[in-house]
Amino acid sequence: MAGDVVKCAVRRFAHCWDKFMERVRSRREARRAARDEAEAKDAAAKTAAAKTETATAEEEKHESLARNAVSASTVAFDEGQRRYGASVVRAAEDPSTEPLSSESNALAYKEDARVFSSLR
User: What are the extents of the domains in the chain?
Assistant: First the structure.
Protein backbone atom coordinates (compact mmCIF):
# COMPACT_ATOMS: atom_id res chain seq x y z
CA MET A 1 0.00 0.00 0.00
CA ALA A 2 2.77 2.44 0.76
CA GLY A 3 4.12 1.75 -2.71
CA ASP A 4 0.78 2.72 -4.25
CA VAL A 5 0.73 5.99 -2.29
CA VAL A 6 4.28 6.83 -3.45
CA LYS A 7 3.39 5.98 -7.07
CA CYS A 8 0.29 8.17 -6.86
CA ALA A 9 2.28 11.02 -5.29
CA VAL A 10 4.98 10.75 -7.96
CA ARG A 11 2.38 10.73 -10.74
CA ARG A 12 0.60 13.71 -9.18
CA PHE A 13 3.92 15.56 -8.84
CA ALA A 14 4.83 14.77 -12.46
CA HIS A 15 1.42 15.99 -13.65
CA CYS A 16 1.69 19.23 -11.62
CA TRP A 17 5.27 19.71 -12.84
CA ASP A 18 4.17 19.37 -16.47
CA LYS A 19 1.38 21.93 -15.97
CA PHE A 20 3.80 24.29 -14.22
CA MET A 21 6.35 23.99 -17.05
CA GLU A 22 3.60 24.61 -19.65
CA ARG A 23 2.65 27.83 -17.83
CA VAL A 24 6.30 28.87 -17.65
CA ARG A 25 6.79 28.20 -21.37
CA SER A 26 3.61 30.08 -22.33
CA ARG A 27 4.63 33.06 -20.17
CA ARG A 28 8.12 33.00 -21.65
CA GLU A 29 6.69 32.90 -25.19
CA ALA A 30 4.31 35.77 -24.37
CA ARG A 31 7.18 37.86 -22.97
CA ARG A 32 9.33 37.05 -25.98
CA ALA A 33 6.51 38.02 -28.37
CA ALA A 34 5.91 41.28 -26.46
CA ARG A 35 9.65 42.03 -26.50
CA ASP A 36 9.88 41.33 -30.23
CA GLU A 37 6.86 43.55 -30.88
CA ALA A 38 8.35 46.34 -28.75
CA GLU A 39 11.69 46.03 -30.56
CA ALA A 40 9.91 46.21 -33.91
CA LYS A 41 8.07 49.37 -32.78
CA ASP A 42 11.34 50.85 -31.49
CA ALA A 43 13.08 50.04 -34.75
CA ALA A 44 10.25 51.65 -36.70
CA ALA A 45 10.36 54.69 -34.41
CA LYS A 46 14.15 54.94 -34.77
CA THR A 47 13.84 54.70 -38.54
CA ALA A 48 11.17 57.40 -38.56
CA ALA A 49 13.27 59.53 -36.20
CA ALA A 50 16.32 59.07 -38.41
CA LYS A 51 14.31 60.12 -41.47
CA THR A 52 12.97 63.12 -39.55
CA GLU A 53 16.47 64.04 -38.36
CA THR A 54 17.76 63.75 -41.91
CA ALA A 55 14.92 65.89 -43.21
CA THR A 56 15.44 68.37 -40.38
CA ALA A 57 19.17 68.48 -41.04
CA GLU A 58 18.51 69.07 -44.73
CA GLU A 59 15.99 71.81 -43.89
CA GLU A 60 18.49 73.40 -41.50
CA LYS A 61 21.13 73.15 -44.20
CA HIS A 62 18.82 74.88 -46.69
CA GLU A 63 17.88 77.49 -44.08
CA SER A 64 21.54 78.16 -43.28
CA LEU A 65 22.30 78.43 -46.99
CA ALA A 66 19.43 80.88 -47.33
CA ARG A 67 20.69 82.85 -44.31
CA ASN A 68 24.18 82.91 -45.79
CA ALA A 69 22.79 84.08 -49.11
CA VAL A 70 20.84 86.86 -47.39
CA SER A 71 23.87 87.92 -45.36
CA ALA A 72 26.00 87.82 -48.50
CA SER A 73 23.36 89.89 -50.29
CA THR A 74 23.39 92.33 -47.36
CA VAL A 75 27.16 92.65 -47.74
CA ALA A 76 26.69 93.12 -51.47
CA PHE A 77 24.00 95.71 -50.70
CA ASP A 78 26.36 97.62 -48.38
CA GLU A 79 29.09 97.48 -50.99
CA GLY A 80 26.53 98.71 -53.52
CA GLN A 81 25.69 101.65 -51.28
CA ARG A 82 29.33 102.68 -51.18
CA ARG A 83 29.72 102.01 -54.87
CA TYR A 84 26.67 104.02 -55.91
CA GLY A 85 27.94 107.00 -53.98
CA ALA A 86 30.47 107.48 -56.76
CA SER A 87 29.35 109.19 -59.94
CA VAL A 88 30.61 106.35 -62.12
CA VAL A 89 30.71 102.59 -61.49
CA ARG A 90 33.69 100.87 -63.00
CA ALA A 91 32.90 97.74 -65.01
CA ALA A 92 35.50 95.74 -63.05
CA GLU A 93 33.58 96.29 -59.81
CA ASP A 94 30.22 95.21 -61.21
CA PRO A 95 30.40 93.55 -64.63
CA SER A 96 26.60 93.49 -64.96
CA THR A 97 26.35 97.28 -65.20
CA GLU A 98 27.81 99.80 -67.53
CA PRO A 99 29.29 103.02 -66.16
CA LEU A 100 26.33 104.95 -64.73
CA SER A 101 25.49 108.61 -64.37
CA SER A 102 24.39 110.01 -61.00
CA GLU A 103 20.68 109.86 -61.98
CA SER A 104 20.89 106.23 -63.00
CA ASN A 105 22.88 105.58 -59.79
CA ALA A 106 19.87 106.71 -57.78
CA LEU A 107 17.51 104.52 -59.82
CA ALA A 108 19.82 101.51 -59.54
CA TYR A 109 20.17 102.07 -55.79
CA LYS A 110 16.35 102.15 -55.37
CA GLU A 111 16.02 98.98 -57.46
CA ASP A 112 18.71 97.20 -55.42
CA ALA A 113 17.08 98.34 -52.18
CA ARG A 114 13.74 96.91 -53.34
CA VAL A 115 15.31 93.59 -54.40
CA PHE A 116 17.35 93.15 -51.22
CA SER A 117 14.45 94.09 -48.96
CA SER A 118 12.35 91.36 -50.62
CA LEU A 119 15.09 88.81 -49.80
CA ARG A 120 14.90 89.44 -46.04
Answer: 2-119
